[in-house]
Design goal:
alpha+beta, Alpha-Beta Plaits, two-stranded antiparallel sheet, globular
Length: about 110
């Protein structure tokens, strides 16, 4: 199993999770992070670090977010670079953190 970054990360891109990841499995896109399933070791240390509850174990992804499992794989393999150190969230992250249905906002 692996972990999955869900829609709540879109337009926020908080990176608290990156600093605790022992295998550097996060990939950074223009306005969200994803987890490379080939690198994730299922340690779960990233889950409590996310301030928007965007990370779940694959088996715990709610049905309405299951599309994010495939999207994490696709985007991780599309060439998004590895991110290994935390950095500031997006400038308007606080305005977006409590919104749902953000998939249309995803920048590839």
């Amino acid at each position: 199993m692996t972990h999955v970054v869900m829609e709540s990360c879109i337009r926020c891109r908080y990176t608290d999770c990156v600093d605790v990841c022992p295998v550097d499995c996060f990939r950074e896109g223009p306005n969200m992070l994803v987890i490379d399933p080939d690198e994730c070791i299922d340690c779960a240390v990233c889950i409590p670090e996310c301030p928007v509850d965007a990370i779940r174990a694959e088996e715990d992804v709610p049905p309405e977010q299951e599309h994010m499992i495939r999207l994490n794989v696709e985007l991780a393999r599309s060439g998004w670079p590895s991110i290994t150190r935390a950095k500031g969230a997006l400038p308007d992250a606080d305005a977006w953190k409590d919104r749902s249905g953000k998939l249309a906002e995803l920048k590839r």
